[in-house]
Amino acid sequence: MLEPLLIFVTVVEQKNFSRAAKLLHISQPSVSLHIQNLEKEFGNKLFHRSPQYVQVTAAGELLYQSAKKMITYYQLVQEQIDQLKNRVTGKMNVGASYTIGEYILPYLLEKYIKQYPLVDLEVTIKNTTQIMNELTGGQLDLALVEGKVQDTGCLISTFMIDELILLVSPSHPLASHPAIQPTMLHDHVWILREQGSGTRHYEDHLINHFKLRVKKSFIFSSNQGVKEAIIAGLGIAILSRLTVRREVENGVLREIPIHNFSLKRPLSIVQMKKNAINSKAVEILTQQLQDIATR
């Protein structure tokens, strides 16, 4: 757009057509043609030419001063547009299951929010089934859930591996054992999460795997509720290690290993395939989460 003016300004500053052509990486005839076209357009001579020198005319000097301002302003606008392309703005709806939403996501978002303060972020925390329903219903841009996700309409990638552990109160009979055999889990009261929870899937798996006799069970719809129930002595439970780190360190909960058995599950990023073209805000958060998996 500004090529003729840029060539003109270069000739003025170099005071030579050949040097201007060399500096701009174009031929001298091309430089001459652009200058001739400008002179026709303005109806005035822009240079006094001789074999020894090129001297700008009064009209040329006027055009030079204006052209310099135009080029500077154009470059400034171009920089601003480039910055605008790279700005991360807009609204992003992220859904997370309880373990991720309450114990992982706040720390993951700290860096993101500092880097991209113009993003309007809304986080929904529910159980895995509810979050997946909202994702497939188009209410979420991104879902972060626990356990295996089986949906052919989704793009799924693991960003972290989570371990579930058996927990009891310090006063519980099992608390005196450094580790237990699976048979020692018969006839206990269990504190369970609700159906649809990612944690509940693994609780049921453990109980069914060892064909445990369950004396009684209580159902709580949050990790915090399960923790408080264990502390109160209502029963035993399994929870993510991530959710009980402080309580175990402080001694209000006791972790009991099960001989030759562990429960691990993927924590996954889930997006709808039909929404594969995402906003820059979603792309960057997804990339930051995927980077965790490579650490």
UniProtKB/TrEMBL annotation:
Pfam families the record matches: HTH_1, LysR_substrate
Domain of life: Bacteria
UniProt xrefs under InterPro entries: LysR_HTH_N, LysR_subst-bd, WH-like_DNA-bd_sf, WH_DNA-bd_sf
A GO molecular function held by the record: transcription cis-regulatory region binding
Keyword Transcription regulation: yes
Annotated ranges, domain HTH lysR-type: 1-57
Keywords: DNA-binding, Transcription, Transcription regulation
Family: Belongs to the LysR transcriptional regulatory family.
Protein name: Transcriptional regulator, LysR family
Native organism: Seinonella peptonophila
Lineage: Bacteria, Bacillati, Bacillota, Bacilli, Bacillales
